[in-house]
Amino acid sequence: MFDRTASDAPLPHHVTTPLLTLITERSLDEDYAHVAAKRRATGENEPPRSRLWSTALAVAAFGALATIVAVQTQRDADVRELGRAALIRQIESGRADVADLQKQIRSLTDDGLALDKANAALAEEVDDLSARRQRLEVVNGYIPVRGPGVRIKVASAPGAVPNDEVRDSDPALLVDGLFTAGAEAIAINDQRIVALGGIRNTNRAVHVNGRPLTPPFVVEAIGNPGTLQARLLESSAGLEWFSVVSTYGFSYVPQNVDDLRLPAATLRTLRQAKIDTLTDTRPDEEGAAP
Q1: Whole-model pTM?
Q2: Residue ranges of domains in the chain
Q3: Which residues of the chain have pLDDT under 50?
Q4: Strands (DSSP E) along the chain, which ranges?
């Protein structure tokens, strides 16, 4: 059974006394006891003076050593405390630096996402402009093209007089009708039809883009071969063309082709209007020109 009286008793002296003090006291007590016992054994009444000095010096040295140990222990504790405080400051500073770096990372990430979005928009715009340029180049005839379409051979009637031969206005009607029917690109005898070119007669020869052509005239048109000829018959230019063919007896041989190859037209220099510096012809005060 627990003894309350025993538990309430004060603690022994060696438990409550600080370690350094206890060591010093016990050392001194043991030294005194040792000297007294030795003196009793030898029958000496008083210790020799030299022994007293030796004992005093030993006690003093031990006390000084204990003091040094205590001071050094306190100094080490102070150093450890200072080191701990410095380490805490370094950790806090490091945390602040990490927070700043995280903010920079988030900002750079946002900038990168914005740049990626802008780059994607620019890429779409470039693709759109490239597609538009390609379509314009196809229409203008300045790049070679290939695809399915219709090949038509046209020639004058056998033994036709000069006035009944194929002239420039006749293939021009056919070309207009094919474009109306949905043709994307047309060439006559490998001469690409372009806006800056033309179909002209020079004497009895038909010229395309300034180059003379030799009959028969092979008209190649890239488009849907399933609808191109039918729509040609539905266009006004096509109806007029077939009327000319019937009137003058032209040879007309159409053929659907799965793969036509049309060359690019030779790039020609655009004609540009220039501002002319004219003399000022405004009337003077009397209404007459100067």
Answers
A1: 0.52
A2: 141-262
A3: 1-2, 4-6, 280-290
A4: 145-155, 185-188, 191-192, 199-202, 205-208, 211-213, 217-222, 251-262
